[in-house]
Amino acid sequence: MFKRSSRTLGALGLVFALFTAGAWAADAPKPAPAAPKPAAVAPAPATPAAPIAPAAAASAAQSLDARIENVKDEVIKLNRDLLVLEEELLFPAGTQVAMFVSMDVGKLFELESVQIKLDDKLVASYLYSPLEVQALHRGGVQRVYLGNLRAGEHELVAFFTGRGPHERDYKRGATVRFDKGTEPKYIELRIRDSTGKLQPEFDVKVWQ
């Protein structure tokens, strides 16, 4: 009986020891798992700047050119308006007188210069270039004088200098008397060919 009890106690002690060892093992702190190493991230490839399309660049250039042309047109219009305003201030309608030069055909006379005297006073003198003469031949009209003139009777004398038939020096004059009222006065100095006389003619036309 005593021997069986000893065996039983021994078995119980072994079980108790195993149980205690298992409990200790369960209670013992477990080591924390090692943190995984971060995977190496490859740098993102740099995105190249998109080139400007030729069509877009051409469209932008055309738009800029159009805006520049619009600005030029506005500046020209503004200058014209300012010129008209300046003339109205400097040369009021009541005293304004304007003189123009025109040429009809002009084959018998090559114009070089024009001098204008108003009431025996030289008011205009102009020397023409070949291009300006060509413009007159094509029907152009040149304003050679703009000024103020009091109301009343006045005398205009115009001298035309150039080369006439057979390349000879040619100088002729034209005279006209006119009345200046309260309205602007416009006078045209005309150069015309006389086919009957085979020589140039010069006259003055006063527009009412």
Structural class: alpha+beta
Backbone shape: flat
Instruction: Tell me the helix content.
Output: 25-40%
Over the alpha carbons, how many angstroms does the gyration radius reach?
55 Å
Work out the number of β strands: 8
Number of helices: 3
Sheet-strand content, in percent, reads 35-45%
Spans of at least 5 consecutive residues with low confidence: 1-6, 11-28
Distance between the termini: 166 Å
Largest sheet: 4 strands, mixed
Average pLDDT level: 77
Q: Strand order of the main beta sheet, please?
A: 4-1-7-8
Q: Tell me the series of helices and strands, N- to C-terminal.
A: HHEEEHEEEEE
Could you explain how this protein is built, in words?
- The protein has helices at residues 2-27, 54-90, 130-137, and strands at 96-104, 110-118, 121-127, 142-148, 152-163, 169-180, 185-194, 199-207.
- The protein has a domain at 92-207.
- It is flat.
- The chain contains three helices and eight strands, in the order ααβββαβββββ.
- Mean pLDDT is 77; it is low at 1-6 and 11-28.
Features:
single chain, 208 residues, alpha+beta, four-stranded mixed β-sheet, four-stranded antiparallel β-sheet, flat
List the helices and strands and how they pair.
Layout: H1 2-27, H2 54-90, E1 96-104, E2 110-118, E3 121-127, H3 130-137, E4 142-148, E5 152-163, E6 169-180, E7 185-194, E8 199-207
Parallel strand pairs: 1-7
Antiparallel strand pairs: 1-4, 2-3, 2-5, 5-6, 7-8
Outline of this structure?
This protein is 34% helix and 36% strand. The chain has 208 residues and is α+β, with helices and mostly antiparallel strands.
